[in-house]
TrEMBL record, chain A:
It comes from Draconibacterium aestuarii. InterPro entries: 6-blade_b-propeller_TolB-like, WD40. This is Uncharacterized protein.
From TrEMBL, chain B:
The keyword Membrane applies. The chain crosses the membrane at residues 7-30, 75-95, 128-145, 151-179, 186-204, 216-238, 250-268. InterPro entries: DUF6057 (IPR045692). This is DUF6057 family protein. Keywords: Membrane, Transmembrane, Transmembrane helix. It holds the Pfam family DUF6057.
Amino acid sequence: MRNGVITYLFFLLVLASCQKQPGNKITSNEFPPIYPDYIDVIIPENIAPLNFLMRDSCKKVVATIKGANQTITVKGKTKIQIPIKKWKKLLSENEEQNLEVTVSALKNGTWATYRPFSWEVNKNKIDPFLSYRLIEPGYEVWNKIQVVERNIETFNERVLADNNLNEGSCMNCHIYGSQNANISMMHIRGEKGGTMLNKDGKLRKINTRNKDMIGNATYGNIHPSGRFAVFSTNVVIPEFHAYGSERLEVYDKASDLIVLDFDNNEVSTQPFLSDTTTLETFPVFSACGKYIYYCAAPYKPLPDSIRSLKYSIHRISFDPENNTPGTKADTIWDAAEHNGSVSHLKTSPDGKYLLYTVADYGTFPIWHREADLQLMNLQTGGIDKLKDVNAFCSDSYHSWSSNSNWFVFASKRDNGIYGKTYFAYIDSEGKAHKPFVLPQRDPAMYDYTLKSFNIPELSKGQTPFDAMDIEKLYSEMESENVK
Amino acid sequence: MGKSEKIWNGVIAAEIAVVSFLFFQFFYAYHLFFKEQILLFIYTPDYLLSYFSKPGWLTCLTGDFLTQFFYLRGGGPFVLAALFSIEWILSYLSIKKISKSQLAKFWAVLPVIADFVSHLSLAHTARISTGLILVLLLFLFYSGIKNKYLATVVAVIFSIAGHWFIGSAAFVFPVLVLLHKLNSKYFVPNTLLLPLVFVLPLLIRGTYLLPLNETLLFPATQIEGLLPLAVFLFVLVIEVILQKTKTRPLFVKLSIGIIGLALAIGGFKNNVNFNREKIFALDSETYFGNTKKVIELAGKSKFENRFLSYYTNMALAKTGQLPHRLLEFYQPAIHGLILPVSQQENWQTILFSNELFYLLGDMNLAQHSSMLGNTFSPYQRSSRMMKRLAEINMVNGDYPGAEKFLRILGKTLFHKKWVRKKSAENNAHCNSNWLIEKRTQIAHSDTIRNSFDYIESIEFLVQQNPHNLIALDYLLSYYLLNKDLVSFKTAYDKYVKSLKRPVPKVYGEALLVKLFQDKVTQKEVLDYRIGTEQMRGFADYTNFFKETRLDIERSQDKFGDTYWFYYHFATFKEN
């Protein structure tokens, strides 16, 4: 009897172990159903491991990442989480080469090996730090907001500002001057708010509105010298669409353009930049600092004429010696000619390109599904519609890496609601390649987060302040007024 | 422990469990349902790890884990009954350990009463109960260590780490240790635990990104949340003093009785809100889809409140009864029709407000309101709002958007079944009956409106689809309750006349007033096909009004549920 039981158990064990072997194998011509979509992408040498998961209900998954001299095999139940040390070594040894990734998955007792895909390791590194705002996509009001800095070479994250420490006040984008973490700024609204300026870790709080302005500074950009910032001041109106997924429409009832001298706290503008006939917004300096690009549209009665509100790209000169914007604007992208509306201008640090978002109309593309990025070559005037970069949902809020080889942008392409940050490579010919999403330690993180990644900005170093410094600045320091 | 004491203890623990279960099951069940709806406990590594980002991770984790069972009928009362019984047992053992008092079992009832009455408040959560339980467990573990040096080391470790895994309840620990060591030579060295336990959290506040006040309270959100802990400490200190002064047991028993009674009555009076329970009853039954029960509960309630009107009106509209029975129920003008999503409203109102927009078919405002409901709920994660957002996206045909929320809910313990059904529909992009029905309501063209232009939004829905009777009835009811008969008649002529719908009671009454005011011809009156009974009623009312003039009471008895009475006597006041 006892022997019989042992024999029976032995057979059971043999049977069970047989099932574990990849006995039934098939090879698929399809790419594996992985999330995020990391199929055939170009990645910088210093990026964190591209962890991913299988979307279909497999029992086990194995990924083999094959380089020139080394292969990593990673196993998981449904997720592939690559050990960071091995990953770093693999990338450094395979600079300018392709890694071949083969994924096999056990499903319904059968191992399927999918069509291999590649990760091309690019020697041009991306700036290692990325700041972004984490916010619920409530699209009109907020509750809990954090501005976070992520080291994209690892998975480490640090909170730069948390509105729970600032009486729940709204916090806008955190932007760097020339991707330099020692020069950055961020608007914090609320009673004790102001524009927080970081210069080499020394924090200042500036009330950016003088008596002649229609509002506080809104969208802005720091001059390459770090001394000036150009801002639009906007009277912002949020309204709602009635149809399907169009959701929110944000437009400006009025908007002007100013330049602020941080050394003297002085505001300068030109009459044509602050009158009521034209709406100006999203200004940026050129890489050389001698020009200002901005979006402009003739004023229209809103919201009735919202669909005909189309912004062009204008350029004026800027004299840093005298803090004086030029008196004549050139149109370098005509909304009427292109039948679109531009927003979010960003010049590349090498001065070659201007990256911007084009929507059908209006000035707030993040809920415009048709909003796509476009790249203008400032030397030739040629426009690239970035077919490989854009997706069906809003692509906007972009920022450059300091070497101009990479840019980061926010896209709602996954579900139309929650924004995530994507990186895209631009080669020496100026061609932009398929983007990939910011990797996470747990690749399922994006599925379960209720926060949108908003306004991503790259920087070369770590920002020299944290949330407690901002709390102190907010609650204890008086604002400096501008003239 | 003698046999009789064991029986006593068993009786007290059982009594606590039975009383609390019965109360929460039969008098306060909807509060507990609501507490589950404003939480979203999901089984994912990132979510579980997120508990470490704030102090008291173990307290919060166990508290939230238990709160998910509030979803089940009887689940909430059962969990609370168990928590209270455990609290009593541990309080009893701790008090006994410190004071050796024979009356410990009675003293131990007081913190339980404090926690019980605190749970009547919406802000109080199971996290507070689990915090108390955990700190008592720590103390009992510590006090059971025989080796004095080891005990000291454990006390220091618990004092340092307590805030990390228990939160504010950890502040009780060194006090318990001190009282335990009151007559020992270790008392003085142990006093050092006090500054340690209070100063350390302040020093590491930056790690948790908490403002000063929240650092000391967390996971409680307001000072009242610390009542059970405060009562427990108070009880201990009093007991030790009474022991020292050798107070007679009868006096002590009397004191316990008086304090307990005062705590129970004061706490109950302060926290219980049966009117809110009625609101939550209608709200939850709306959520559960029990429309008939909503009307039934509203009919029984004597409580007059805009939220009750809000849910009642929705139930009436859903069953096509709104234009017939609108005035059978309390109507605070238009405030019972639409709940505004504004800064002046609290988070519960914002959370409730999506129901109407969803019912009307205004998916964009429903989505806005649900997003904000979720954002402003206490933990910014509401299972109920996730469900609504999934439904809205399905109706809009935004399948990837719906999938986002379905995937999240799929990681819960109790919403999986709902998710399986909806996911099957979503993945197949199929047209279930409810989707077909909802999609007939939604707009097929666009307009831009301010989020507060509710009436403009409703009228747009009606323009898009005059057969959207729910939106139409809301539009007309809005005008009627606003006594705007001009707009009512314009909208009626524009949208209702062509529908060949029998004239509902309230509309007929309003039309008669307007037609009478306009002095129209008999032929024009007949054009509206108002029933003869209503015509007769209007004549009766006119005669009655002429006879009695402004005798509200007599008019109300006879015509209280008519629009004529509302039109003449209802007065508007600020809500």
